[in-house]
Specification:
This protein is α/β, with parallel strands linked by helices. Helices cover about 45% and strands about 20% of the residues. Helix 1 runs parallel beside helix 12.
């Protein structure tokens, strides 16, 4: 199993991403860890290299110029070296929680024999995550029930939803536990829903199929397009046994940066570990 972390410009988020990753993960479980840095600033690149120095199985990979095609092209070359390995992929503004990796792996082991090719963590700040949490959100938050803006629409362009999530999380109102917002939730098939690939585990079989059809193996649109093809022999699931928090989509960033403190998020995420 290998881990691929993508980072480019949010050094503040990336710093917290690494803190959560190192706190909640036995990184030695990975055969290799690749931090794909797409033309970051000098200090940001130094942070990437420092992480690689701390972990003998990690490698810092510098990619330029900036752009999705260059990142996915570089990833394709790396994945050619690991054609038999499951791949965990996460973004620079994703903050994992306790047992996140165990949740992904245990779900993968249960579902893979049935034809599963992808397992997604439950990520509240994307559409799949909101769909899974919808019933529990309705039970816990009257303002969610009253607001069409919170319940519906495309989350990636909805800063109000992201603000609502983070303000409640920072205040302690949103507890992602089996006694809290995860109560009664089960692993669910993706069923053709568009998946934001913020924190996922992919099988080598899925990556092999995609490579045969598409040029850019780990592009989000490519993965979604393939999983929705009628002839696709594999399926994807989302599991509440693995929770990861996604800070923001680009259209959300301005509002979040103006009203949400990453320091407050850090305090809530790391808790006693601080």
């Amino acid at each position: 199993m290998i881990l691929v972390i993508l980072t480019s410009h949010r050094m503040d988020c990336f710093s917290l991403c690494l803190e959560c990753l190192e706190l909640h993960t036995s990184l030695a479980l990975f055969e290799r860890i690749y931090v794909m840095a797409n033309a970051p600033a000098q200090e940001h690149w130094r942070m990437v290299r420092d992480f690689a120095r701390r972990h003998g199985n990690a490698k810092a990979v510098y990619i330029e110029p900036r752009g999705q095609r260059y990142v996915t092209g570089a990833q394709r070359e790396i994945l050619k070296k690991h054609v038999d390995s499951p791949v965990v992929k996460m973004d620079e503004d994703v903050f994992v929680t306790e047992n996140w990796l165990q949740g992904l792996v245990s779900t993968y082991k249960k579902e893979f024999p049935k034809g599963c090719g992808l397992v997604s963590a439950l990520v509240p700040n994307n559409n799949v995550g909101r769909n899974v949490l919808d019933k529990n959100f309705r039970a816990a938050f009257p303002e969610y029930v009253k607001s069409e803006c919170l319940q519906n629409g495309k989350i990636s362009t909805n800063p109000r939803y992201a603000l609502w999530l983070w303000k409640n999380f920072i205040s302690g109102s949103m507890v992602y536990s089996r006694k809290g917002l995860l109560k009664g939730l089960q692993t669910q098939p993706l069923n053709g829903r568009y998946l934001n690939i913020n924190c996922i585990l992919m099988s080598p079989e899925l990556l092999g199929y995609i490579t045969q059809v598409f040029e850019y193996t780990t592009d989000e649109d490519v993965i979604n397009t393939f999983l929705c093809l009628e002839q696709c022999p594999l399926y994807g699931v989302v599991t509440p046994d693995s929770v990861a928090h996604h800070y923001s989509f680009e259209p959300q960033q301005k509002e979040l940066d103006a009203h949400i403190s990453l320091s407050d998020i850090r305090n809530r995420l790391l808790g006693d570990a601080l």
